[in-house]
Write the structure tokens for this entry.
Amino acid sequence: MSKILVTGCSGQMGHDVSVDLIEHGYGVLSPSHVEMDLSDFNSVKQYLDRNKPSHVIHCAAWTKVDLAEDDPDACRAVNVTGTRALAEWCHKNDVKVLYISTDYVFPGTGDKPWTVDDQTDPINVYGMSKRDGEEFVRKLEKHFIVRVSWVFGINGNNFVNTMIALSKKYDKVRVVADQYGSLTYTADLAPMLRQMMESDCYGTYHACNSGICTWYDIACEIFRLIGADVECIAIPSSEYPMRAKRPLNSRLDTSSITKNGFDPLPDWKDALERYIKSIYDEDETRVPVASTYL
């Protein structure tokens, strides 16, 4: 049986990837931070030497975008040093690597979807760290780089959960309406990642749910789906300043998916409806109480 290392299994992406792999008969290695510290080059190499995975799906990352501006070394230790250690070991041992990257590698200008061949030019520390991680993975012959945007899934905090929590506390919510992109539902993405790993269609991909939206559009749809009597007020990014600059254009051209024989992900509204149904069907108390978001 193949032993597939999935980093970040406690997060939204890693959780759903692991579940999908196990359901399809794969053995999954899911180390804790203590077992494999991604910020420690030697810790990563030692774990890999002991466990010798047949494939690596690298979902883990430092994703505290605002904190990265104040502590870039901590962010880069995970997103660059850890990725370099994984990539070097996989190169030496001829192991496939699938690396989850982000729309934040782009500058966020213009209004056209970013293609896989467009020049990267990150505007914040997090984006730079993910771009630099990509460069180590790209040196491998057997690699997949999959850029995603606006991720949400069952196993963690996300914008959807935050809006649901805010709807229980307020009758008005102000939400940014000038950042454009699309959601990526981890339950939809996980099967595609497995199919990629099973293939030899190496290269860079953009993968997210179909359709373009803003955070405001998403919030309005969430409130409609849960029947919340909340007034959603559209605001520009300038009225919600954050420590790290956000891209205004996170649109991703996902044509690389279909060109290589993979099915496109469903529309973002369809994904959102299924996600909300899943969290209410399982246990409504899973929805966390938010502090602040948009």
